[in-house]
Design brief:
This protein is mainly α. The protein is built from six helices and three strands, in the order H-H-E-H-H-E-E-H-H. Strand 2 and strand 3 form a beta hairpin.
């Protein structure tokens, strides 16, 4: 009989906090949303996620690859071609992150109005 630990993200020492921190990162969410459309080249990812630097994109992709969420494909061409895609595990994350992105877009006007009202009251 195998033992499954009781992971609890609210417990300070729980390793699930690392995963939560990674997926709560804005760059991770945007990269996963883009990769949900299919295998994508590095330069196309960078163009799709406006404002991300090459360094941050590289670091985030490495972290996602380390966690088993993204696979990196290198093609022996000149110039070298590198493509990224979600793994099976990464695809399970795409739905929730895409839903959060859709929520953010759908409620932007309301959030901006609330911020303005809040700032005016203070």
């Amino acid at each position: 009989m195998s033992y499954e630990p009781d992971w609890n993200v609210l417990t300070q020492t729980c390793p699930s906090r690392t995963s939560l921190a990674r997926i709560a990162n804005k760059w991770t969410a945007m990269i996963v949303i883009v990769l949900g459309k299919g295998r994508t080249r590095f330069r196309d990812l960078r163009a799709a996620v406006e404002g991300i630097s090459g360094k941050v994109l590289t670091e985030t992709l490495r972290d996602l690859e380390r966690d088993g969420l993204v696979t990196r494909h290198v093609f022996a061409e000149v110039p070298p071609r590198v493509e990224y895609e979600l793994t099976g595990l990464g695809r399970t994350l795409h739905g929730p992150l895409a839903a959060i992105g859709q929520w953010a877009e759908a409620h932007t006007a309301e959030v901006l109005e609330n911020r303005e009202r809040y700032d005016q009251e203070r």
